[in-house]
Amino acid sequence: MRTQLAEELIHLSPAEKRELGEALIASADADAAGPRQLTDAQRTELRARLAHHRANPGEPGVTLQELKTKLLGARA
């Protein structure tokens, strides 16, 4: 494991560590079940996003924190 990543993980709150652990377990279970197949709509969306990124490589993206805030804010 990379040192920087390990340093960041140490500073997570207990709730964040629990959430990460649960996500890792779910991911491992999904990996054990075999690869998931994308739907045609998902494949089309991913190709469109990749094409957009390749056409606009300097366009800023969204940070993980921004995405998390947006998603969690949508639940409230």
Quick one: overall form?
extended
Decide which structural class fits the backbone. Answer: mainly alpha
β-strand amount: under 5%
The count of β-strands is: 0
Helix content range: over 70%
Q: Total number of helical segments?
A: 4
Unreliable parts = none
- Biggest sheet statistics: none
Describe the structure.
This protein has helices at 3-10, 14-32, 40-55, 64-75. With 76 residues, the chain is an all-alpha fold. It is extended. The mean pLDDT is 86.
Secondary-structure blueprint:
Blueprint: H1 3-10, H2 14-32, H3 40-55, H4 64-75
Which key phrases capture this entry?
single chain; 76 residues; mainly alpha; extended
Entry summary:
Helices cover 72% and strands 0% of the residues. It is mostly helical.
